[in-house]
From TrEMBL:
It holds the Pfam family ATP19. GO terms for cellular component: mitochondrial membrane. It comes from Russula ochroleuca. One of its GO terms (biological process) is proton motive force-driven ATP synthesis. InterPro entries: ATP19. It is found in: Mitochondrion membrane. Its main location: mitochondrion. This is Uncharacterized protein. Keywords: Membrane, Mitochondrion.
Amino acid sequence: MSYTILGRAIKTEYLALGTLLSTVGLSYAAASGGSKEAPSGSKQTLREVKDSVKFESSSKEEEEFIRKFVEEAEKGSKH
């Protein structure tokens, strides 16, 4: 059996192979991802990132409690 595509007879075997190869190729391209290199100028130290985080707290004591809790959690997570 064959299909007529753009005026030419194409066998179903070729259509099936084309579909399978296209699917595998697109899946591989999507899974391979992009470059792992970070763009220049965007490197921040961990301290700069932590200082830039703003806590939504109603008082200064609550903000200090949250910061202390986060620091203790970080110390506990290090092996």
